[in-house]
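Re: S-adenosylmethionine structure - here you go.
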Amino acid sequence: MSVNLKHSVLIWLINQIQKFGPEKVVVLGKTYEISRDVFNPERYYTSRFMAEHIHVAAGDKVLDMGTGSGIQAVTAARTAGRVIAVDINPEAVRFAARNIRAHGLEEKVSVIQGDLFSSLDPAEKFDVILFTPPYFDGRPGTLFEHALIDPDKSLIKRFFGSAKNYLKEGGYVQMLYSSIAGNERVLRLMHGLGWEYSLMARSRIWMETFFIYKSRPL
Ligand SMILES: C[S@@+](CC[C@H](N)C(=O)[O-])C[C@H]1O[C@@H](n2cnc3c(N)ncnc32)[C@H](O)[C@@H]1O
């Protein structure tokens, strides 16, 4: 099966799965409310895998890029001093903000809508940027599909083209990627944009291997 066909089948399947299921899910002992237009952190392993490996020091200022349900922001807020969570999908922003409030974290975590860094103050700098990007190829046709699809790695290119401007000296990006979406190509793209990386964690499920990378500007 070609990569494009495989991705189309998986996108179709995930769209079907999103239509069903509870509106409240529990991941790593914490409850998250979601709608069918928000990436379900219980159903997809990537959310839990990333949350289990978040590396944030006490007091750090953290950016959770593509927050979805808010799971990474909620998890980071256990140790971080301040978290800003961003999503392009207004429905994700609504539910992430609701989940932040439900966990009593509204003093520490803000949620904003925006396309990558566009809504942030350009003077804002972070110790850690968390990123669990969409990674299937195609064109997003719905709000929800922004959680799945990155056309020809254009989001990755834009992200690594700008992220340096939002990192403090010594800061890093913690990003999850998948073997079925060309992780080697993404590493080459990152390197071409002036980043180095190290592997923080990997996990194989069936035919797919998930990687978590720590990336720093060269
Ligand atoms: C794979 S989901 C991950 C959600 C969540 N971080 C998690 O771990 O469950 C990717 C998220 O990135 C968001 N996203 C996609 N493109 C974006 C963009 N250009 N700017 C901000 N967020 C974006 C999607 O709406 C989606 O919520």
